[in-house]
Amino acid sequence: MLKTFEQLKNRQLQGKRHRIVAVCANDDATRGALQLAEELADVSYVNAATPEEAAARAVEMIRNGEGDILMKGLIGTDQLLRAVLNKETGLLPQGRIMTHLAMAQIPNYHKMLFFTDAAVIPYPTHEQRIQQVRYATDVCHALGIDEPRIALIHCAEHGGKQFPFVDGYAEIRSMAEKGEFGRCIVDGPMDVKCACSRKALEAKGMQSPINGEADVLIFPDIEAGNTFYKTLTLCTPTQTAGLLFGPQCPVIVPSRGDTVEGKFNSILFALASL
Amino acid sequence: MLKTFEQLKNRQLQGKRHRIVAVCANDDATRGALQLAEELADVSYVNAATPEEAAARAVEMIRNGEGDILMKGLIGTDQLLRAVLNKETGLLPQGRIMTHLAMAQIPNYHKMLFFTDAAVIPYPTHEQRIQQVRYATDVCHALGIDEPRIALIHCAEHGGKQFPFVDGYAEIRSMAEKGEFGRCIVDGPMDVKCACSRKALEAKGMQSPINGEADVLIFPDIEAGNTFYKTLTLCTPTQTAGLLFGPQCPVIVPSRGDTVEGKFNSILFALASL
Question: Are B226 and A224 an interchain contact pair (Cβ–Cβ within 8 Å)?
Fold first, then answer.
């Protein structure tokens, strides 16, 4: 069972070396994380006269097959994403959505917990949510979680006319049952606690195949996803990693203020997802 | 500085005795909490042939001035609220909104943290949000927090066209500056971490009069508020209490599965808010 970033690193030491393209890696934390990563991966450092040029050059390298992962250093996320999302020269195939997927090593939880979306899509449409489930399932499979348990989060165990998106949850469950995401267990609506605690589930008299052991939380909106992320890292010594999925390659866009360790965790996550 | 429920109890021991009207208090946890409360308050136990009749009778007692606090036992929240919200015989004055306000004793935070709304209003309108700020400020004042620091939560420090409610935050800040809520400091948009950590605020290069020491978090929607509540109690030994404000008297509607301690905390909160 995947419990720690250390495990992820050890697995990666035995895996294939991949290539990271680092854009404007001119701050200490990004440099430090990339130095740690050199044990596992090859790193290209891309700089240019302006951040825009650096971003364009890095994206071009990925398109040319010269790199497998894109990582942001001292450049605005918007600046990097403009190059990634450029319709002609960018990295997002038509019809794909780009969404943020994070993973957390939470002291009180018995395994790694993945969650989406804390950073990019404000209010996912039904189609976007389906894609989020698909990306999360694929990543879990890549990380050796054969049958991820995926909870569709909502503040209650039922919908209501103010929560039209909850109707879509039934369709996602049914798609999962038909095997459209590969092997996985999908259930919801349920709240964060019922997703991650059998005791909480029982206290509500609820039954769920997730059984309080979720691997993935799909949040209804970015306010909830972001609140989860920030509350965990505010109140517990949780370690996290986050990536953008959807583009041709995983894109690492660390937050201002992420530590060397946090940025290195995201590199580990990106390497393992390939 | 208010840090613990224990402090709240000690204050209450020296305060005025109030009267609790308990509806269908037939479960062990509610009974247990009310027994603890008898040191501080007088309790009327209301039962009847049906939960609906008990709710109606309890609401009538409040209207007749025979009680100061309403508390739910083994009766559906919906059943109790139908009686509370009844336009002719209920307890919600016209033009008032009813909203959930909770308080949390979080091990890693240096004082009590209040937050709203984790349970009742799905997507607060601008008017509802103003009322939430007002109730929270009033409650903080009642609990001896002279100048509460109130953070208007959002996933980022700026708005955007997908987040129209963030525009309203500026007006709420300006109302606060004009003294419309009494003494308080209001700022936002900001995320949970910037609201509660000076370090996080600095890492983002942000400045705020709240200075990472929020007393109150006003959440943009129920998904975020509920996620905050559930994440805290899932991942940390946080103690919480919750009340409905807006009706003539505070209404305690504990969750299924709340412990004796949790229900007693809510009683303490209700008593202190009067």
Answer: yes
Full residue range of the structural domain in which residue B212 is found: 99-242
Per the listing, tokens 């694929």 go with A138
A204 CB neighbour count, 10 Å cutoff? 18
ipTM score above 0.90: yes
What sign results for the dihedral spanned by CA atoms A35, A39, A40, A41?
Answer: positive
**CB contact at 8 A, A242 and A14:** no
On whether both A86 and A179 belong to a single domain, the answer is no
Residues on chain B bordering chain A, Cβ-to-Cβ distance under 8 angstroms: 106-109, 118-119, 122-123, 153-155, 160, 162-163, 191-193, 196-197, 200, 203-205, 219-228, 230-236, 238, 255-257
Task: Quote the CA–CA distance of B82 and B88 in Å, as a whole number.
Answer: 11
Contact between B228 and A231 using a beta-carbon 8 Å cutoff: yes
The span from the CA of B29 to the CA of B7, in Å, is 22
Closest CB to B231: pick one of A222, A228, A256: A228
3-state secondary structure of B136: helix
Which one of B234, B239, B253, B255 would you mutate to disrupt binding with A, by most A Cβ within 10 Å of its Cβ?
B234
What are the tokens at B62?
């409040």
In this structure, the answer to whether residues B204 and B238 fall within a common structural domain is: yes
Q: Dump pLDDT digits (tens) for B41-56.
A: 999 999 999 999 999 9
Quick one: B22 and B72 in the same domain? yes
pLDDT tens figures, B127-162: 999 999 999 999 999 999 999 999 999 999 999 999
Can you list the alpha helix ranges (DSSP code H) found in chain A? 5-13, 28-37, 51-63, 77-85, 126-142, 165-177, 192-196, 198-203, 222-235, 260-273
Number of domains in chain A: 2
> Do A38 and A83 sit in the same domain of this protein?
yes
Give the closest-approach CA distance of A107 to chain B in angstroms.
8
Separation CA B218–CA B149 (nearest Å) = 11
Strand partners, B105: B239
For the stretch A172-209, pLDDT in tens is: 999 999 999 999 999 999 999 999 999 999 988 899 99
- Residue B121 burial by Cβ neighbours in a 10 Å radius (0-12, 13-18, 19+): buried
Q: Supply the DSSP symbol for B102.
A: E
